[in-house]
Amino acid sequence: MEKEIQQANTSLDFYNMKAARIEDQLRFCSDQVQKLGEERFQKSVSLENTQKRLSDMRRSSHQAKESLEDSQFKIERSRAALLELQIEIERERFKKKRIEEELEVARRKVVLLQAKTEGNSMIERLQEELREYREILKCSICLDRPKEVVITKCYHLFCNPCVHKVTENRHRKCPVCAASFGANDVKPVYI
Ligand SMILES: [Zn+2]
Ligand SMILES: [Zn+2]
């Protein structure tokens, strides 16, 4: 009986010891669980922060994309405006060239007209001179035939037929100055 009690005591000690070890292990486990819980909390906070940062980045990336698109649109518009401006400049250049060509044609016309005017005035001058020479060379009575004879009393010149008509009269007088002359006063001249 005593032996049985001793055995039971030993067994109780063993179980007590085991229970103490299990309690230790349980405490350790509960510590671990608490630690894990804290870690989990920290991680969830960190995850939340990361998610928030990610969302911020996503937003700023979206804004950057929008701004880039806006810039690209502006660039496209500027390019179109530039192209239009270049076309306009080209058109203006063409117009200027046409005007310069027209101006050159007009300038040439002016030169031609000036030459023509000068030519006309020269022709008029020559006609005037021709008239003067004709008056000098043609008979002053008929204004048609050349001067062929001279009345040596006054030295006036006439054509032969006109003087012949005068010499048929009794009173022979020069048709220009009315000087009397005889048949022998009429002499041929060679101009
Ligand atoms: Zn005559
Ligand atoms: Zn005369």
Automatic annotation (TrEMBL):
* A single GO molecular function term of this UniProt record: ubiquitin protein ligase activity
Keyword terms of this UniProt record: Chromatin regulator, Coiled coil, Metal-binding, Nucleus, Transferase, Ubl conjugation pathway, Zinc, Zinc-finger
Q: Name one Pfam family in it.
A: zf-C3HC4
GO cellular component, as recorded: HULC complex; nucleus
Listed EC numbers: 2.3.2.27
Q: Domain named RING-type: which ranges?
A: 139-177
Which protein is depicted?
E3 ubiquitin protein ligase
The organism encoding this protein is: Gossypium darwinii
